[in-house]
Write a structure and sequence with these properties.
The chain has 435 residues and is α/β, with parallel strands linked by helices. It has helices spanning 8-15, 20-27, 55-66, 81-97, 117-122, 138-148, 162-178, 192-202, 232-238, 244-247, 250-253, 256-265, 354-367, 375-394, 400-405, and strands spanning 33-35, 46-51, 71-78, 111-113, 128-131, 151-154, 182-184, 209-218, 273-279, 294-300, 306-313, 320-327, 330-333, 338-341, 345-346, 370-372, 398-399. It is built from 15 helices and 17 strands. The strands form three sheets. A nine-stranded mixed beta sheet has the order 15-14-13-12-8-11-10-9-17.
Length: 435
């Protein structure tokens, strides 16, 4: 989710999947569709707004436009004018390469800068909004979109604290009643090979599952040097990865993908408790705020199964992003889509672009008068990640009930560039208290 101007190549790679045919072919197998009162059924223009137009946001915008030729980017907002203009330029370039630049129609009067950009984008009459700001803002933004009756694509995680998760969960329940689609950026759920192997595992492909081992072990991500004209708030917003109130720490912002797959394999049954180790070994410079650079978490399920979860963001080290499953009758390599043992199996199908699949499915559902609501798993996987962070920060074993009922609020109710950001310190296990 870089906040620099995305490259044309990155846009085209994300947008290369054909839209309408893939949407019809793929959306039915994704589950979570239910009949609803027709919403934008059939053809016609769908107006799309976006709030948070950095690298990931701009990529999501292109994928939304590629999902149907009558999808139009209508309004855009960001906290910073340079993000807004660079992002729109990148989207326009990418769509021009596809000879579909007419789908970008964001007039000057529909470009908004500031903390209230969400309100202004929603007020332009958009049908769908893409929410790709730092995660701390997501509860408020999702609530406002649902209240307005606007379909939502939201990146992960959906909050940085438990009260935020509860707010989003309530908004998603309201969205069901209103026939509003909520599609999550937990993109592995829309990956063809992963869908196939998870189904096999749920059907007993390795027998009884004894353990799941999940890794998101990678290198450092981006950061931006401090500029003299920036306030402390602007500094933190532009480097949001490194502040838990904005990102949730990387166990939530990035490793959530792995944790979501672990819960998905278990049939969306979530762990009862966890214990975790974590800290800062390499990223100790103030440039990296107060987040950790590694976590090692043991998740415990009610049935006795354990999940072993490891994530790290350190350069010049071994890397691995995958999930491994051990059962009574075999083993599975989830990323490789293979099962060895009693029931040998390998996925032989075609893997379409999972990022494009999300948008193809969403817009096919909207135009077909159906609803996709990913709210339950996107909230619970967010809480699973936050629970792991709580356990690492405090050094305590944390139960699901404790995590769900936590009263710790990291995200301020209102954010302005001239205010002081929340006071945050580096967590110290055994000293930092659970709340």
């Amino acid at each position: 989710m870089s906040t620099s101007k995305p490259s044309r190549r990155s846009f085209l790679k994300a947008a290369s999947t054909s839209a309408a045919a893939a949407a019809v072919a793929g959306s039915a197998s994704l589950g979570a569709l239910r009949a609803a009162a027709p919403v934008h059924q059939g053809g016609g223009k769908l107006k799309i707004g976006i709030v948070g137009i950095g690298g990931r946001g701009s990529g999501a915008a292109v994928q939304a436009l590629m999902a149907h030729t009558e999808n139009v980017l209508w309004a855009a907002g960001d906290m910073f004018v340079d993000h807004l203009e660079n992002g729109l330029a990148g989207i326009t370039d990418a769509m021009a390469e596809q000879k579909r630049q007419d789908q970008v129609d964001v007039g000057k009067d529909r470009r908004f800068v500031g903390a209230d950009a969400i309100d202004k984008v929603l007020a332009t009459g958009v049908d769908v909004v893409l929410l790709t700001t730092p995660p701390g803002f997501r509860p408020m933004h999702i609530e406002k979109a649902v209240e307005k009756g606007v379909h939502v694509f939201c990146e992960k995680p959906v909050a940085t604290d438990a009260p935020g998760v509860r707010r989003v969960h309530a908004a998603c329940e309201l969205a069901k009643k209103k026939g509003i689609s909520i599609v999550s950026g937990l993109c592995y759920r829309y990956h063809d090979g992963r869908r196939a192997i998870v189904q096999k595992l749920q059907e007993g492909g390795v027998g009884e599952i004894l353990a799941i081992h999940g890794n998101y072990i990678t290198g450092e991500l981006w950061s931006f040097p401090r500029q003299a004209q920036w306030t402390e708030m602007e500094w933190q917003l532009r480097n949001w990865l490194y502040y838990p109130w904005l990102s949730g720490d990387h166990i939530a912002e990035q490793h959530i993908h792995t944790l979501d797959v672990m819960a998905w394999i278990k049939g969306d049954v979530y762990p009862a408790a966890c214990a975790s180790l974590g800290g800062r070994q390499v990223r100790t410079d103030p440039l990296f705020g107060v987040v950790y650079d590694h976590f090692a978490t043991i998740y415990e399920w009610e049935d006795g199964m354990k999940g072993f979860s490891y994530c790290r963001q350190q350069n010049n080290c071994w890397r691995d992003v995958n999930e491994y499953v051990v059962g009574t009758e075999g083993k599975a390599n989830v990323f490789r889509h293979t099962i060895t043992g009693k029931h040998e199996w390998k996925f032989e199908g075609k893997n379409r672009d999972m990022y494009q699949n999300e948008h193809d499915a969403m817009f096919a559902a909207i135009r077909g008068g159906k609803v996709i609501n990913n709210g339950d798993y996107m909230c619970k996987s967010t809480l699973m990640a936050i629970m792991g962070r709580m356990a690492a920060y405090t050094g305590q074993r944390i139960t699901w009930e404790q995590a769900w009922n936590s009263q710790e609020v990291l995200m301020p109710a209102d954010v302005t560039l001239d205010m002081a950001p929340p006071k945050v310190e580096i967590a110290r296990p055994g000293i930092t208290k659970f709340s």
